[in-house]
Amino acid sequence: MLLELSLLVVYRGVLPVMVALGVVASLATIWVLAQPGLRKAVANRYFLALAAFDLLLFLFYIPILVSACGCTFPNYGSAYYFSHFGWSLVNSFHGMSTYTLVLLALDRFMGVWFPTAFKRLQQPPFAFTHRMVAVVVLSVGVQVPFMPHGNVVCAEDKNIKCYSNTTTCESGAWVSVNGYECNYDQPWHIASRYFLSLIVYWLPYVLMLVFNVSLVIAVSLGKTKKNKEDMLVATVIAMTASYVLFTLPITIFLTGFADTDTDRCKNYNPKEMLRHMGNILQIAEHVLHILFLLLINPRFRREMISLVRRRSATSEEGNTTSPGDDQRFGSRPLNSTLHSGKAGDSNRPFRPPIPWRVTSRDSRCPTTPGRGVG
User: Fold this and answer.
1) Homologous superfamily of 2-307
2) Which of 74, 79, 182, 270 has the smallest CB count inside 10 Å?
């Protein structure tokens, strides 16, 4: 009963709301940062890439919600997807988001402490595009060893195997065994797990800690002299600090408590509460990115407010005419209105036009007949 309640609250209540908010927040961030006035800045390119990776993570998190973290599958196809790609793709996009933050912090660190080297790092082969390609390759590459080794078995099969070709199940209850569980005790699997944990979780923690401490010292010493640079450094510090705090629980679970327990969806296990709490905090960390931009970055905030006002003003333009105006002017053609305006002017007394005064400076310009001084 407690297990079913926890799955219902987390994967049918809390996380769907957070994922929906994350999708809206990511789309809004992309919309604002894609404006010509913002996208040219180097730091905003990182924020734009971060929002794109966050959006992909939220979208690919939907199968996790539908399956209640891999506990219920409507058919064989959904179980097959989850066993091979479910967590692997989510973790890949999480890795891309993580290293985008690391590179953003690195840029601020170099810009504050080593300005000359910072300029060289903006050129090939260290330019922004090359960095993003490297981030994608690294984030997907560390997940590839686990993708082929997942399997789907029937819940009636007491011997859960990683290599079976079962495609029929009388009860229709499928069990997904992903690549993180299969071959768990094999040397190559152990080495791949530790390398994955090091690259995706612990190394970014160390790098962010070093960069954040250095940036805090730089701010205290007055090395960030411009207000714009202060705001950017504050945004980076807030994002990286929240990343460490919000992803630490799931990192501790995956490193020290995750195992091959295939009964986690049937029997209550206190360790699973740490998994559920870690998943909630991890999603919350991605949702908070736009909040930091709104609260700390004034230029982003002004641009978003301007876009929202412009959008609302455009939508109201079609409703500025009252129904009475439509009845009065709807049947009158435009040329007849213009003609009546001209006719009204003809009733005025005629006044001859006043010619331009010709001075020595504009003596070469002849006076134009029939044109008055405005």
Assistant:
1) Rhodopsin 7-helix transmembrane proteins (1.20.1070.10)
2) 270
